[in-house]
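Q: What structure does this chain adopt?
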Amino acid sequence: MAAPERPAQAPTSSQAPASPPPPASPVGAHGEPVKDTGLVRSLTHRQTTMIGLGSALGTGLFLGSGSAISAAGPAVIISYAIGAVLVAVIAVLLGEMSAAHPVQGSFGAIAHRYLGPWAGFVTRWTYWFSAVVVIGTEVVASALYIRWWWPGVPMSAAILAIATLVLAVNIINVKAFGTTEFWLSAIKVTALGAFILCAAFLVFFGLPDHEATGFAHLTDDGGFVPHGPKSVWIAMSVVMFAYAGFEVVAIASAEATDPQRSIRTAMRQLAWRLSVFYVLAITLVVALIPWQSLAAGDGSVEASPFVRVFSDIGVPAAATLTNLVVLVAAVSAANAHLYGASRLLHSLGDDGLAPAPLARLTSRGVPANALAASTLGIAAAALLAFYDVAGIFGILMSIALFAVLLVWLLILASYVAFRRHRDAHPEEFTGFSIPGGSRLALVAGAGVLAVAATAIEVPDMRQAAGVGLTFTVVLLGCYALTVFRRSRRT
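A:
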């Protein structure tokens, strides 16, 4: 029997799904010994938690918030609060599943077990696609932050510099990635906490040459909901992108030293930390700067609303520091998403659902080929930037969001099937369980569908839906072809 610390491997798509195995089982779904995947369990509990924050606290908050404020005005606070609740539910449900099955392939392998091989195939490939796009988005944002200081730097050169840095961190080994991501995340979490304290001081007390703003800006310029209640829903098309990325914690469980403990606490901490950080930060930003002023920069994202908070009140040094922090945030998010994308692509190759070279590991346990393939988003972003395609950020963000919404739906569907099996066979499972989890999954699923429905009103989301649905159809076709070719061999 294999050692207990080895992650259970999902069966390949040529095998019919059988009844799910006990959690963290040392054998596969059909009782076969699990082969050594080569991944190294060296991520500590603290690193796993910070990886989740690193992937979620990025461009969506620091740069994309300008578009959300433009869409809903001060009422964007409601959009972020709703998003926080929705993501908290998905996070804790995913945490329950991942703690029970800390396997290579994470939620993709779990979807394979509980929904069928097609679901595992689509989930992993779709998440890889969304992560690759997010990597490109974060790198573009990093380049924009650099150009805030040096406008003369070519966009393509700035993108290349950031891409080289991120790839170098990931190619060494997982321990180097975990250490780097821990400190990058710690910097931006600390800085965001400091920003919240400083902004709150300006709101309530002000400075000698700058009066306290209070919360008058929340109701000036057309009231709290200047564009009507519908705008709260429309803004969700931007807001939810800010929360995407917490899933990397589940992916990291296959390389965590104590996966059950790490997943259980990391997901719970992520749920409340993201809620506090996002809602408080956006509330203070809108309280300090009139929302119409923040929205005026929509379409020209050369500066983050967080940077403008300080530059508009005449504190240029603080604005420079804030721009440095949001640059670190974007690099950190790109770093974490590249890790997550490469691990899912490696698991697909290991299961025979992607080209075999993608399953190869270096002597340090790094899937170098999968890493290289996952940089396609950076290459695409650089190409778009080279040809000066207008609205690069908005296009990439919408495509990534639509893909991740589909992944969330599959995660929630997997949870319903997982919970049904867990309730029927409680003796197979240990660890925490979410009361009323199945009902929460259905409510969260309705919320995800409501966000996807913004494609009716938002042109970028409509374009993203076309790309996303086409990609999904192609994936299903590829899966059918894979099954057909395997059946011909047998």
